[in-house]
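Quick one, tokens below. Sequence please?
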């Protein structure tokens, strides 16, 4: 991944797409195990884990993350909250917020 990509600019898509389920799980674990607050993670670090979620569970809808019926694991909901925060601050594009709906995956 290119750690020098400015926030809000898309990282090269192929570097964000996990090559396997094992890699996707490792990326998500890395995101969840960070000692720094999630809002302080670089764009690339955050996107690596965000996209991994949709590789692991492609049926999840970001808009349903806070809904009891949305199917999101409770531990993943803060990641979705952060994704929407970044989107509202124009640090994520719509394509990055909805990677599986917009063809990023």
């Amino acid at each position: 991944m290119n750690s020098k990509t400015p926030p809000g600019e898309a990282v090269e898509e192929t570097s964000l797409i996990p090559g396997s389920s094992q890699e996707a799980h490792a990326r998500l674990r890395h995101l969840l195990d960070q000692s720094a607050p999630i809002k302080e993670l670089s764009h690339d670090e955050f996107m690596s884990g965000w996209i991994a979620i949709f590789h692991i569970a492609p049926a999840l809808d970001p808009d349903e993350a806070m809904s009891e019926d949305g199917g999101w694991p409770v531990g993943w909901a803060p990641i979705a909250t952060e994704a929407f925060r970044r989107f509202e601050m124009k640090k994520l594009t719509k394509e990055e917020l909805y990677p599986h709906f917009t063809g990023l995956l």
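The helical segments are 13-16, 21-32, 43-56, 77-88, 94-97. Residues 1-12 have pLDDT under 50 and may be disordered.
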